[in-house]
């Protein structure tokens, strides 16, 4: 997949993944990787930025498989931001698809 396409939609995919349920970082990398190929080095800086912008809250939860894990929870501001991104994405897709269809005619 084109790296610029991926970069443009990654925030929306991350926000939507956490909207469904709270997730910890590695779990989120695995979830996002089902849609676009990403690694931890891409996701963790994005999580940090979205947390700093108050779209996520974090908390620690004990793990039976090692140290406590940091979970990400979508805030009310995060939900609004996710919804706005989805609206923008839908409009963008429609405009690009309309353009491509017109060019083929």
From TrEMBL:
InterPro entries to which the protein is assigned, alphabetical: Metal_resp_DNA-bind_regulator, Tscrpt_reg_PadR_N, WH-like_DNA-bd_sf, WH_DNA-bd_sf
Sequence ranges assigned to domain Transcription regulator PadR N-terminal in this UniProt record: 14-78
Gene3D superfamilies for this protein: Winged helix-like DNA-binding domain superfamily/Winged helix DNA-binding domain
Pfam families named in the record: PadR
SUPFAM superfamilies found in the cross-reference section: Winged helix' DNA-binding domain (SSF46785)
Coiled-coil regions listed: none
PANTHER family: PADR-FAMILY TRANSCRIPTIONAL REGULATOR, TRANSCRIPTIONAL REGULATOR, PADR FAMILY
Protein name per UniProt: PadR family transcriptional regulator
Organism of this sequence: Pusillibacter faecalis
């Amino acid at each position: 997949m084109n790296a610029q396409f991926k970069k443009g939609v990654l925030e929306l995919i991350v926000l939507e993944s956490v909207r469904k349920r709270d997730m910890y970082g590695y779990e989120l990398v695995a979830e996002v990787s089902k849609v676009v190929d990403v690694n931890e080095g891409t996701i963790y800086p994005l999580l940090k930025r979205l947390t700093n912008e108050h779209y996520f809250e974090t908390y620690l939860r004990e793990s039976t498989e090692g140290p406590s894990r940091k979970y990400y929870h979508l805030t009310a501001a995060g939900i609004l931001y996710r919804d706005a991104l989805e609206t923008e994405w839908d409009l963008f897709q429609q405009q690009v698809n309309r353009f491509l269809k017109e060019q083929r005619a």
